[in-house]
Amino acid sequence: MAGVASQRSAGGGEADTPYFTVAQAARRLQVSPSTIWRWIDAKKLRAYRIGEKTIRVRREDLEAIVRPTDAAIEAATGSRTKPLGDEESARGLAALRRAAVSRAEQLARRGGQPFPPSSDLVREIREELSARR
Question: What is the mean pLDDT of the chain?
Fold first, then answer.
């Protein structure tokens, strides 16, 4: 025990430890211990059992969970958002113009009346079904 205490006081301690307790990991990332447990349960953070009851988190695993937000978005969506090129912008604007023309044509065919909200249609169908019962 004296060796451990002297090692910590001599500049050792958490910074030199390869494994952290859940509480230490939480303090290190400035999150709550329950967040660390959620990450462990969700398999986002790997934990190691030492003996029957002791759980520890490896330094490398803790460092791996910290990444820039754009990397988190890329991991979640499978793609990285980037500015559109000239050709992509032109295609997008052309698609918007075609959609506006299509909407105007549909409105003209309906005498300027837009389609009713779908909630009205759902209500009508429900009323028909309840009248049949």
Answer: 83
